Amino acid sequence: MLFLSSWSIRPVTLDRVFKICFLLFLLFFTVSVISLFAGTADISLLNVIRDLFPLGTDGHKVLTPAEKSILYSIRLPRVILAGLVGAALSMSGVVFQALLRNPLADPYILGISAGSAVGAVTGILLGAEVIILGIPGMAFLGAILAVLVVFGIAGTGRRMETNTLLLTGVMVNAFFSAVILFVFSISDHLQLQRAIYWTMGDLSLADDQAIMYTGFFLFIGMTFIYRYARSLNILATGEETALQLGISVQKTKILLLTAASLVTAAAVAASGTIGFVGLIIPHILRLIVGPDHRILLPAALLFGGTFLVFADTMARCLVSPAELPVGVITALCGAPYFLALLRRRLSS
Predict the structure, then answer these.
(1) Is 140 part of a structural domain of the chain?
(2) Total structural domains in the chain?
(3) CB 200 within 8 A of CB 273
(4) CB burial class (10 A; 0-12, 13-18, 19+) of residue 4?
(5) Residue 146 vs residues 214, 259, 262, 264, 265: alpha-carbon distances, Å
(6) How far apart are CA 250 and CA 99, in angstroms?
(7) CATH code at position 93
(8) Binning pLDDT at 50, 70 and 90, where does residue 159 land?
(9) Within 13 Å of residue 140, how many CA atoms lie on the same side as its CB?
(10) DSSP characters over 196-229
(11) Which end of the chain is more exposed for a tag (fewer CB within 10 A), N or C?
(12) Residue at 55 is within a domain
């Protein structure tokens, strides 16, 4: 029982779920507001309030057109998209870790994000943006291909060794990265610059379309996955126990892996390859709120969004007026965390 240790089992009630989600939402809201006003352009919160509620200003707007453009057309869409992408990656990480019963599993480590990136980069270079859901569709095909390759190679009969699976994911990740480099080498210069920056994680091109389809796939994926929260609790104790309790293990795993891959693909298509969010957020929250997926899934969704909004704010501000790809910040946080988890696991 990898995740269900006796010390961490606490009763899950509707009241407890509501309280934890409310606190996490307040944290998300606070970080988002701070992110809106962080950056090179100094925009006063008081002026924004006066602009939204022009009482005592004779009806005149306070913000300049340039400030409105920065706030509402650049920063606000970016904050919303960062929240959605972080939520999607965190939720997918919860699913992968539960199904594999391993805290080291996440879409990035297993090569799912790299597969999505191959599909999305290919779509960008082929001009698939002109097709409705062209980039997300290509990213989803890449994610499914990665899932089939990883689990096809790592699976031996009815059993699947976790260490073999992780090693296979690393190798598949490296292979898809090489494919991306090959695609770059034969691409047009103008397309190449955008694609290279995108593969490092880029939220600067956030717009209404990216927000809508990412939010749509996240909503569909979360609704579907949450229906299997109890099944995930049972699967986390072991496949033999799940079979004895009447769970259709293979069918459930296929459905949940497909749903998590779809959510991952939507996030990658919108923001590029952002690693380690699905690794560290589920693990931290499992220690805080417990392993029950009825509370872990919504908690990861909210805290994952908060984390990525914070990381993107750091990416915008650390080297201002230039900015870093957000994937650099998440890697700086996640890589040491991954190594610490790996060392702890090997020593136990």
Answers:
(1) yes
(2) 1
(3) yes
(4) middle
(5) 20, 14, 12, 12, 11
(6) 11
(7) 1.10.3470.10
(8) low
(9) 15
(10) HHHHT---TT--HHHHHHHHHHHHHHHHHHHTTH
(11) C
(12) no
Question: What domain range includes position 128?
Answer: 12-42+79-347
Per-residue model confidence as pLDDT tens digits over 60-103: 567 788 888 888 888 999 999 999 999 999 999 999 888 888 77
Question: Which pLDDT score is estimated for 13?
Answer: 82
**Neighbour-count burial for 96-106, b at 16+ CB within 10 Å, e otherwise:** bbbbbbbbbbb
3-state helix, strand, coil in the chain (%, to 5): 75, 0, 25
Is the backbone of residue 157 left (phi > 0), alpha (psi -120 to 50) or beta?
Answer: left
Q: What is the pLDDT of residues 9-26, one digit of tens each?
A: 467 788 889 999 999 999
Task: Quote the percentage of the chain above a pLDDT of 90.
Answer: 26
Write the DSSP assignment of 56-102 as a string of letters.
TTTT---S-HHHHIIIIIIIHHHHHHHHHHHHHHHHHHHHHHHHHT-
Q: What average pLDDT does range 307-311 have in this prediction? A: 96
Q: How many CA atoms does the CB half-sphere of 136 hold within 13 Å?
A: 19
Q: Is residue 64 included in any domain, yes or no?
A: no
Cα atoms in the Cβ-side hemisphere of radius 13 Å centred on 261: 27
* DSSP letter assigned to residue 291: S
Residue in the structure block whose two tokens are 């191959």: 118
Please write the tens of the pLDDT for every residue from 229-256.
Answer: 999 998 888 778 888 888 888 888 888 9
Tokens standing for residue 249: 């293990």
pLDDT per residue as tens digits for the range 326-345: 988 998 888 888 788 777 76
CB 91 within 8 A of CB 303: no
